[in-house]
Amino acid sequence: MARGEVTPRTTVKRVAERGSHDPALIDAVIDEALICHLGFIDGGTPFVVPTIHGRRGDTVYFHGSPASRALRRSTGAEVCLTITILDGLVLARSAFHHSMNYRSVMVLGRAREVTDAEEKLQALRAIVEHVCPGRWEAARRPNLREFSKTLVVALSLEEASVKVRSGPPVDEDEDHDLDVWAGVLPLEIEAGTAVPDELMNPGLAAPAHVRWRRPTERLGSTTD
Amino acid sequence: MARGEVTPRTTVKRVAERGSHDPALIDAVIDEALICHLGFIDGGTPFVVPTIHGRRGDTVYFHGSPASRALRRSTGAEVCLTITILDGLVLARSAFHHSMNYRSVMVLGRAREVTDAEEKLQALRAIVEHVCPGRWEAARRPNLREFSKTLVVALSLEEASVKVRSGPPVDEDEDHDLDVWAGVLPLEIEAGTAVPDELMNPGLAAPAHVRWRRPTERLGSTTD
Asked: Tens of pLDDT along chain A (224 residues)?
């Protein structure tokens, strides 16, 4: 199946005009978001855990300890990875039409453990570079012990959809004359000033790759 | 079961010292977070969708259209509601010890549809007031048509846990002499200046309840 194809599972059902399967839009949301939420089933119960991720082409990667239940239950199983960016609160004149502006990607598929050493190394690099581009070059690379103590899981972006809401509130016509302020309160993630580790040589200045203010500012500077 | 009791499902397994079942901490995370992620099962597949929520005492509520698959599949079924606040990126000297500072609540349980009219109205109020305290008083209340077109779902906080990571990176002793900047990049959600709806009377000033900058600033001003 090629990316961008729609499956019954990824058909956006509610408010369908907000849905898309555009790979460029999906990739942009995945790359901008700092974390995602992984859904898996354990003993018939759904579980949702936050995790960081990275993308290489049409594959999204996440990682953790080989003892992680989330990773053990995800490997070889159907999972759902949801990546949401909250862009604003939509304040309508009526309580009923309150909403939020957001971009949310949902990826469905069977997760697989990454066992190939080269793919695993590139996946770890993608995860570190996703969170903080430039960091892979700066930090000490994993040694063999650390490498083997890390479980990396891959999920294909073949079956993915994105839902977007943007713009002003949509009120009932008869509510437009109400004396109620209506509009959008924009929301963004902001990075503060980097806090140096107290155990570090204080002469070491904060590098450029920790001096961004918005998640979008950190993008585009990877060496990939 | 009383809140704060631990069940096999809510025992925090990985990095157990980060886990807690303290109701006050759990409530604080739920109240500060603007959105959550709801996990449910449909046809054997896990799904995760973002949604807004509200809390009243020991119950968390979410809502949507009666046609929403997420709500239909959640009602009467085991679900997982995960609420995550990302507090910072933890940049260690080694790639392996990179992490994030976060607070994440996981609520497990059987979701129920709220059918009692008074509880439903109070739940809708809690959801609106959760996102933007003061808004319930300002906005037009739901009429009977809107009320019946909204499905409200409740989840008890009986079975909930919270996992927290905070503080500086934890590196291997032998890495402390490396010439690598290490520390934490703090992250926060910031609200911008409210954007008025173009269809609104321009003389209507933005009310105080849309003039907060940080999600924590909006709290404590509810009339509940």
From this structure: 778 788 878 777 667 778 899 999 999 999 999 999 999 999 999 999 999 999 999 999 999 999 999 999 999 999 999 999 999 999 999 999 999 999 999 999 999 999 999 999 999 999 999 999 999 999 999 999 999 999 999 999 999 999 999 999 999 999 999 999 999 999 999 999 999 999 998 889 999 999 999 999 998 654 44
- Name the one residue in this structure whose structure tokens are 């990095």: B15
CA–CA separation, A27 and A23 (whole Å): 6
Q: Are B168 and B183 in contact (CB under 8 A)?
A: yes
- On whether the pTM is more than 0.80, the answer is yes
The residue ranking higher by pLDDT, A171 or B220, is A171
The nearest alpha carbon in chain A to B93 belongs to A139
Query: Looking at the partner chain, which of B141, B183, B189 has a beta carbon nearest the beta carbon of A95?
Result: B141
Among all residues of chain A, which has the CA nearest to that of B144?
Answer: A96
Helix (H/G/I), strand (E/B), else coil: A101 = strand
CB pairs under 8 A between A and B: 298
Asked if the C-beta of A174 comes within 8 angstroms of chain B's C-beta atoms, the answer is no
What's the CATH number where B97 sits? 2.30.110.10
Chain B residues 57-116 with a CB less than 8 Å from chain A: 64-65, 67-69, 78-82, 84, 86, 89, 91-96, 98, 100, 102, 104, 106, 108
Domain that holds residue A83: 16-167+201-218
Q: Does A205 touch chain B (CB under 8 A)?
A: yes
Task: Give the burial class of B43: count Cβ atoms within 10 A of its Cβ; 0-12 exposed, 13-18 middle, 19 or more buried.
Answer: exposed
The verdict on residue A176 lying in a domain is no
Whether B192 and chain A come into contact, CB under 8 Å, resolves to yes
The one-character DSSP state at A17 is: G
Return the closest-CA partner of residue A217 out of A128, A134, A104, A125. A134
In chain A, the number of structural domains is 1
Pick B197's closest partner by Cβ from A69, A141, A183: A183
Contact A108, A78 (CB under 8 A): yes
CB contact under 8 A, A195 and B187: no
Determine, yes or no, domain membership for A5: no
A190 in any annotated domain:
no
A219 touches chain B (CB under 8 A): no
Q: Decide if A181 and B204 are in contact by the 8 Å CB cutoff.
A: yes
Task: Evaluate whether residue B10 is within a structural domain.
Answer: no
